[in-house]
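Chapter review: from sequence to fold.
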Amino acid sequence: MKPLSIGRTLGTGLRVAGRLAGQRIAAGAGKAEAPSAASASVAEAVAGAQVQAAGRAASSNLAGGVGGLLRPFRRVGGIVWLEVTGAFFLLFVLVFAQALWRMRSSYAHGPGHQKFLVSAAMTAVFLYLGLSSFWRARRR
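The token string follows.
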């Protein structure tokens, strides 16, 4: 809602509440004071409802404006996040590749055969994660 519309909404709500209060006061002029107190509380309730509606509209407008402002940064932030994550995974590839290189002599039937297989599997997994992260960042 635009600020001008918020003002109009509040003004209309206050006019309606004033008319209701005036009618109740005029109708209950001969009666006891309890009905006029009730009409004042009705007017206050209507005015309060109008203020709450205006506040909700203003907060949704603020959220939309901030979202529009941050939209380009969200895209760039997502790309940077994917690239940093990919670089982090590729660091693990270097660690496991070194272990793989040290155990290359026991790839078939050596004492470190299981460690070699685990290092090979971890290298493959982290290589996939790192490269796919960079590939996804490139597609954005």
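Two observations follow directly from the output. The mean pLDDT is 79. The first helix runs from residue 3 to 27.
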